[in-house]
Each structure stands twice: as C-alpha cells, then as structure tokens.
Please model this.
Amino acid sequence: MTENRPDLRVLVERLGGLAERRLAFDPSTEAARTRAVQLRDHAVGHLRVRAASLDAPLLILLLGPTGAGKSSLFNALAGRAASRTGVLRPTTRTAIVLAHPDDLETLRAGALAGLGSDQLESVADPSLPSGVALVDAPDVDSIEHANRELADRLVEAADLCVFVTTATRYADRVPWTVLGRVRERGLPIVVVVNRLPPAGDDRVVVLDDVRRLFGDAGFGAELEVTGIAEGALDPDNDALDAVSVGPIRVRIDALRGDAAGRRALAAEALAGSVAGVGPLVSRVADDVAHEQIDVAALRRTVATDHERELAALRADLARGTFLRDEALRHWQRYVGADDVTRLFSRGIGAIRGAIASVFRPSTAPVVEVREATTDDLVAVVRQHAAEAARRTATAWADEPRVGAAIGERGDLWGVSPGFDDRLRTRLEGWIASIGEDIAATGEGKRKLARGASIGVNALGVGVMLATFIHTAGLTGTEVGVAAATAFLNQKLLGALFGEAAMVELISRARARLDAALEATFAEERERFEALVPATDDLDGLALELRAVADEIRTVSPGSVAIEASIEPATPPLTVDRPDR
Model:
C-alpha cells in the first residue's frame, strides 16, 4: 500500500493466485467452471502479464460493426492500405496488428500470446516509432462465433478502445454486446462516428444522441466522441481522409513519443481492467461458498454412513454372535469345561488351587482358534465396511460434483482393494499387543502361569475371546456354546489374574481393537473424502476472494500505486472512464 492506495501489482498477483486455486478445486457446475476459467484467463493471461510489463507497447484496439469504416480508419492511421476493405461482409475475419517489428515480438510473447496465425495477422513496419500498436479487430456483428470470441479476447488485452460506428448504425443492438464487455472491463474508450452530415444541426443531433446512448449504457458524461463527415475518404489507401482523422492520429503519435504517457495510460487501463473484474470475482466467491455448503453435506453423508456402520459393527462384536461355534467348541474343550464346571461352586480359591489339574498338558488350540476368530472378525468388519461404502455411493451417485466418479469407479461400491490384507495386519498387531499386556499384567503370577502350563499365547486367545463373549449376568445354565464358553473363559481369567486385573485386560484389549477398527473405517471413508475439497479450504478461498473483491472496489484511476507516481511528459490521449 502507498498512501493508503492499493498496490495494483500486489493486488493483481493475489488475484491471479486465487483464480488458479479456484480452478484447481474443480468447479461443480458448468456455469461455475465457465466463470472460474474466465477469471483465471483474465487474471493470469492479461492482468498479470500487463502488470509485469507496463512499459510494453500500448495496444489500441479498433472495434466496430461491418461496414462502419473501421478498417478505413485503421489504414488512415497506418498511412497505407494495411487492412482490407470492400463490400464482402464481414470484411475483417482475422485481427490485424500493425507495429514496429520489435513491438510485435514483445506483444506476441505478452498481451497477444496464444493467438495463432489464423487469428492474428502481423504487419511489421520498421518506419513506425515503437511504443504503440494498432489492432483492427474482426467485425463485432460477425455471425461467426470464433470472430466474436476473438474480438472479446482482444478487448481483454487492449489498453484503449476506439469504437467506430456510423450516423445511421450507432443504435444497432449487436455491437452493444461487445461494448458492454468494454464497459465491464473498464477499458478507456473513444467513439468515432463515421459518415456524419458535413455540418449543421443534423450533425449535432447525431453526436448528442450518441453521447446519450453511451451514457445510458454506463459510460460517463465526459465521453470523447469524434465525428467524420460523409465522403471524407482517401481512395488511394482505402482509407478515411487524413485530415478528418487528424485529431486521433496526432494523439496516437504523441503517445508514441511519450513513454511516461504510455505508461500512465497502461496503468489507467490496468486499473480499469482490475476494477472491471470485481463483479466476476464476487460471483466466483459466491460459487465457492455454495460449493462449500454442498461439499459439507457430502462429507456429512460419508461420515454418517460410516459412523452408523461402525456402531452396528461394535454392537455385533459386543454380542459375539459373529463367532462360529466350531472355534468356540475348540476352546471350550481345551479348558476342560466338565471339570471346571464342577469346581465353580467351590469358589475362585478352589479354582486357583486346582488349576494345574484343570489344564491338561495337551497343546492348546491357539493357532486354530486365533485364525478362526480372525477370519470371523475380518468377515464381519468387511460386511459393515462394504455396507457403509454402498450407502455412500448410492447417496453420492446423483450428485453433480461426484456422480461421474462414483459411476466410473466400481471399487467405491464396496471395500477398497487390499482391504482384507490390511485389516489382518492390524488384527495381528492387536493380538500381539494382548500378549504383551498379559506378560506385563502377569509378572507377579509367573509361578502360577508356569504351574498351569498355559503360556502367554493361550491366555492371549482367552482375552481375545473375552472381548467378544462375556457373561454379562449369564450363569452356567444359559444355553449356547458362546454363553458357556464365555462363562468358563471369564472364570478362568479371573482365577489367574484376579477379577480387577482381568477386567482391565479385557477393557484395554477392547479399546485397542476399537482404535484399529476406527482406523480401518477412516481409511475407507477417506476414499470418498478425497473426491471433494476440504470444507475449510473452500471456506478460506471464498473469504479471500471476497476480501480481494472488496479491495478491487477501491480501485479507480489515480487511486492505485504502481511504484512511484507517473507524470506524462505530454498530455495523454483524452479518454473517458466508464462508470462502475
């Protein structure tokens, strides 16, 4: 900031960065994408280029409808037949740029970059002073869409617009579409009315009416309007008469010899261009804000679906009903269910005393029970994770922002590739942590454990099963393998570790398993979340765009800072600034 004035170059750089970020967030609708592309192209392709090269040649753009004499004016300013004129309509199908050879090279690499030879014809004239380039644009009323697009592209790049019309066609509707873009962009403009009555009231009436129409369209009351009389022609050069265009030519020649004046006009045009893009910045900010709301809703959907299925999974695990009877029977036989049942009535102390006789020296079915339990656990987790994915994919399928991705990626309708392997790795880590916890908890009962010949691995299976099957008020009379196994398992663990230690062991194991399952569901959820931006990022971008839009509203000619103030050596071309 300089003396509380916005630094235009800093503002342009910020705007360009925001425009690129906005487009990177993949706008969700075609209309929003069109606005985002327009903002990016204008901010990066024109504003940033022009702000970095205020000493580049000025682009003076001649616009007008077919037959208005635009190319004839171009030839008059060029001093020769540089642009074709004639009765074939539209006369000008490609843009023609006339400049010193060095200026042409600069413009081709800067303001006119990206325009091919089929769009832009270059006319190099070494005799011309450098600093100003004239561009004869395609006729603005051309029925060819490409011509209208090219004219609009040139409006983006120009520093000054010279609009050419006639005494009978100035109110035609079609050219006002392009003039509206000139006004929105804040481009300085001069109006040339060709084929006027040579003198008298009729001439005054036409010029006054032209000023009125431009004023009604949002151009200011100080609009400069130049009139050229009917028949003021130079047939040798297919041009307007040199005397009639004298005032315009004198001012352009003055700019060619006045570097400071050119720089001042370029800065003024840049300020107008920045100010003109303000409404578009606000609309893009609104687009981003609306998308933030939509994305937040999408993220809530995926979070809700996965949280619901994780809660259902927890309920299944708490009931233990997902475990197959075969594995539970293995464990029930191992702990010697018949002998242990007879001891329960004698109390925990008796169980501790008889524990060595209860556990037979036969090998515990650790591997069989652990693998079967892991298989059952993987199956039930996969079932709930797949259901969460199916629910989310179904809800997202009709959403414009993500519907295409859902349709193209079949993996989003179920668990992710490699799901089982990743889950098994997590469960192996969980089972290993149970063994480590048992070793630490049973440090003072080492003698008891050795006497029972049980071992950490077997006890680990007991704790693992206890996280899923537990008595919760059951008695030995309850029917079912799970209930019976739970009853025996808890009694034995309590006998070995004590009731409080057993509860802590099981509680810690259950908490670690829950953390592992939460991590698994988070991974599955992230597949969907990766398809949409973070809501905080969108919210932050919308706020930054609105802040820039507010700053742009303070921009007007003379209100901006670009290095130091610029004082032209000669008065710059008198132009009007459109009201905004």
